[in-house]
Amino acid sequence: MSEDQLAGTQARIVREAGRIVQSEGYAALSMRQLAAGLGLTAGALYRYFPTKQHVLMAYCGAALDELTDDLRRIEAGEPEPLRALERMMVAYGAFALADTDRFRVVFLDPDVGRIELADTKTLDGYRVLQGTVRRAQEAGLLRPMPAEDIARILVGCVHGLVVMAITIREIDFSDIETLVATAARTTLRGLSSGSGEN
User: Fold this and answer.
1) Exposed, middle or buried, 32 (CB in 10 Å: 0-12/13-18/19+)?
2) Based on CB atoms within 10 Å of each CB, which residue in 34, 115, 126, 148 is the most buried?
3) pLDDT tens digit sequence for 35-60
4) How far apart (Å, rounded) are the C-alpha atoms in residues 107 and 1?
5) What is the DSSP string of 30-60?
């Protein structure tokens, strides 16, 4: 099997894992069910991924790659850094809300949280955000504080909102997309260099 064929089969396996997680939840994902959904034997599946954890690592990596691609498109297409940061925060919220089961697996599942994603590119999206924060600071648009702190505040703001919307059913988040956009604008206003005290 060529490298392209191997990569294509692995991508097919990861897509099927995503379909199972989305339609039946993470708990339903097993190597046996995954193999059956692909028309493979469980033994054949193990040639591509030695364990369910390896499938989950690939699944999480693919999700993070998708998010990183979105953030890079925003970075490349939006010359105004504060607007780019706002759009990145909204994109993160949209990523979470587009497939809440995937978001749970990638960011909230304690078993997956213990997986060491071997590829350091999994943080590339966060690095794109940090670079945009630095660009905004160089333009004098954000407070003179560590860029890493600003990036953490921005991600934490949206992450907290979407986690609440996904996990706390007792609070009405019927228009969470608008709330995420409002939180992004408000947080950036508070961090802007013209917002008052430094």
Assistant:
1) exposed
2) 34
3) 998 998 888 888 899 988 888 888 88
4) 34
5) -HHHHHHHHT--HHHHHHH-SSHHHHHHHHH
For every residue of 91-124, DSSP letters joined together read HHHHHHHH-HHHHIIIII-HHHHT-----GGGGH
**2-11, pLDDT tens digit by residue?**
888 888 888 8
In whole angstroms, what is the distance from residue 106 CA to residue 64 CA?
Answer: 8
The SS3 call for residue 142 is: strand
Domains of the chain: 1-50 (1.10.10.60), 56-191 (1.10.357.10)
pLDDT tens per residue, range 56-108:
888 888 888 899 999 999 999 999 999 999 999 999 999 999 988 788 878 77
Terminal CA-CA length for the chain:
60
